[in-house]
Every structure is written in C-alpha cells, then in structure tokens.
C-alpha cells in the first residue's frame, strides 16, 4: 500500500485503485491497515493507496469520505465502483474484491 505523501503519487489513470481514507488518531487504524495489506497481497493487479484525511483535505473534498474508515474502489480515470464505510465493511475488503472479480484466492 502506498501511503500518500504527495498528490503526484496518486495515479488513477488506469486499472483498479483502492483508496483508504484514515486518520492517525483513529483507534482501529492498525487493524484496518493489516486487513488492507492482506487484501493487497491477494490482489496484485489492484493499486492500494492510504490517504490521511488531515494531510489531504482536497482529496476529502473530492471523494467525500463520510466516516472513518472509508474505502473507495475506483477504476480507470477514477470511476466509482464501490464505497465501503465503517470498520465492519472495511474489514471485509478481501471478500468485496473477490465478489467483484478483483482478487485471487
């Protein structure tokens, strides 16, 4: 997972991307991060990005995460596929990716 430190690192032009919106103070951040890293291992064709909501308000404005955590699954040029909100949905990311044909076994 690429932890965005500069907007230029976010490449949504081609393929599937997972945007994980988080805040460092979020209590369950480490658990969600672990689950996302496991999902990333099972989905090598998918690009995973972690976005600190406090560091990138312009991305918060653009993608409007409604709570923490929020995960946006996007395809070519940033077209929306799915949004996962809250811990329960976030912890199910591997299954969601598998259900939409984006994860291997």
Name its key features.
single chain, 105 residues, alpha/beta, Glutaredoxin, 4 helices, 31% helix, 28% strand, globular
Describe the structure.
The two termini are 19 Å apart. β4 (70-75) and β5 (79-85) form a beta hairpin. The longest helix is centred in the middle third of the chain and has 14 residues, at 29-42. This protein is of the alpha/beta class. It is 31% helix and 28% strand. The relative contact order is 0.25. The protein has a single domain (2-99), classed as 3-Layer(aba) Sandwich (Glutaredoxin), CATH 3.40.30.10. The protein has 4 helices and 5 strands; from the N terminus they run ββαβαββαα. The chain has a 5-stranded mixed beta sheet with strand order 1-3-2-4-5, with helices on both faces.
- Stretches with pLDDT under 50, minimum 5 residues: none
CATH architecture label: 3-Layer(aba) Sandwich
Mean pLDDT: 92
How are the strands of the biggest sheet laid out side by side? 1-3-2-4-5
């Amino acid at each position: 997972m690429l932890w965005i430190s500069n907007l230029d690192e976010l490449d949504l032009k081609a393929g599937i991307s997972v945007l994980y919106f988080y805040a460092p103070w979020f209590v369950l951040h480490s658990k969600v991060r672990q689950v996302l890293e496991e999902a990333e291992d099972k989905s090598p064709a998918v690009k995973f990005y972690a976005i600190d909501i406090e560091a990138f308000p312009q991305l918060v404005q653009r993608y409007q995460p409604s709570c923490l955590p929020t995960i946006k699954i996007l395809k070519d040029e940033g077209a929306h596929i799915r949004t996962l909100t809250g811990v329960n949905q976030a912890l199910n990311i591997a299954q969601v990716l598998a259900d939409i044909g984006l994860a291997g076994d």
